Amino acid sequence: MQIEPFALERWMTTYETRVQYDIAESGIFPLTANDLLDLVPAAERGPTLQRLLNLRLGYSEARGSLELRRALAETYANGSPDNILVTTGAIEANFLLFNVLLNPGDHVIAPYPAYQQLYSVPRALGCDLSLWPIRPETGFRYDVDDLERLVQPHTRLIVINSPHNPTGTVLSAEDLAHVYEIARTRGAMVLSDEAYRWLTIPGGERPAPPAFDLGPAGISVGTLSKPFGLPGLRIGWLAAPPDIVARCWGMRDYVTLSPGRLNDALAILAIRYRDRIIARNQAIITANLAAANAWIAGHAGLLSWVPPRGGLLALLHYELDIPSLELANRLAEEYSVMLAPGSAFGLEHYLRIGIGQDPPVFATALERVSACLADLQAGGARPAGRQR
User: Fold this and answer.
1) Are 55 and 262 in contact (CB under 8 A)?
2) Which domains does the chain have, with CATH numbers?
3) Which pLDDT tens digit goes with each residue over 199-232?
């Protein structure tokens, strides 16, 4: 496989351990191990900790432990442990599915802009790729009519991501059902990257159900990274018909073999107490969304955005004549703030912003971005053209 460089990941790697204020991050502010243990009722906390400390760090069950797969299956309408494969993050689940489901020459439809894996891997596999545009002109919304026009007789897979990275747009339940029917009636499947499941926005839109719940043509991919604040556990999963799970498991034998045993055990706690994690996340999202709206309103004429309708991400538009990569680099190197360049998503004069950071850090980051913008204007940076 010859695959193109992953532009966003290469850029993030350059700065993410160097800056003080990361508001490009796509997930919620991470939990500590103590935070996770504090979710356990007090009477059970000591025994739980001892069980974790006494866990022998040998290989885990290759599919993920039965206890974890059962807990994940119960989050779907008709899931069983045989429908679940635990993976090294959602990124491995997607990679396995692309390699199992696709052959060279198959037609794949994927959203654009998007997390680059969702279109670069099918392209590298030799698939015939069509990009489903999520356009500024429509307020960054999925347009199912656009999808209808892209479908071909040899379409084998429709990829969706809702809530969407990087725009925060959301597919409604009605639109998801429409997408599912488009795929099912043509003998195709829907791969739904649901990395932002369980993350809702105040005043946002009601998320669609998991694609897996719609029927055998639907596959859901999930993760603990973004909605649970546990990216360091590297726990994701796919929910699919058992034959597809078995094929992905067979390919996974050649890649990562199994999840970490301790990671698996901690993941079980996260799923068991997810309602408390979701409540904690909601407080973070509410505070940061209010701060971002007030800050953007204070820079009217210079900054604008379509607030996220779900998830944690949105694209921030700026009216200055400076390329997004140059601006993002300057923010990181001179102001210690990370905002991802829109160029990583094929869009100029945009920066990707995430509202999952610790609220005091988020507020300070916005102040530093204001300072950068003021310095640029004082230095003679010209307003950009109004066409987007």
Assistant:
1) yes
2) 7-33+276-378 (3.90.1150.10), 58-273 (3.40.640.10)
3) 999 999 988 999 999 999 999 999 999 999 999 9
Radius of gyration of the chain (CA): 21
Q: What is the dihedral of CA 355, 357, 359, 365, to 10 degrees?
A: -90
Q: Which two tokens mark 13?
A: 């790697």
Each residue of 144-188: pLDDT tens digit?
Answer: 999 999 999 999 999 999 999 999 999 999 999 999 999 999 999
Per DSSP, the residues of 186-215 read TT-EEEEE-TTTT---TT--PPPPPGGGG-
Q: CA 131, 135, 141, 146 torsion: positive or negative?
A: negative
**What single-letter amino acid sits at 210?**
P
With 0-12 / 13-18 / 19 or more C-beta atoms within 10 angstroms meaning exposed / middle / buried, residue 340 is buried
Location of structure tokens 């747009």: 169
Task: Give me 112's structure tokens.
Answer: 């654009």
Kindly report, residue by residue over 327-365, the tens digit of the pLDDT.
Answer: 999 999 999 999 999 999 999 999 999 999 999 999 999
Alpha carbons 72 and 268: distance in angstroms, whole number:
9
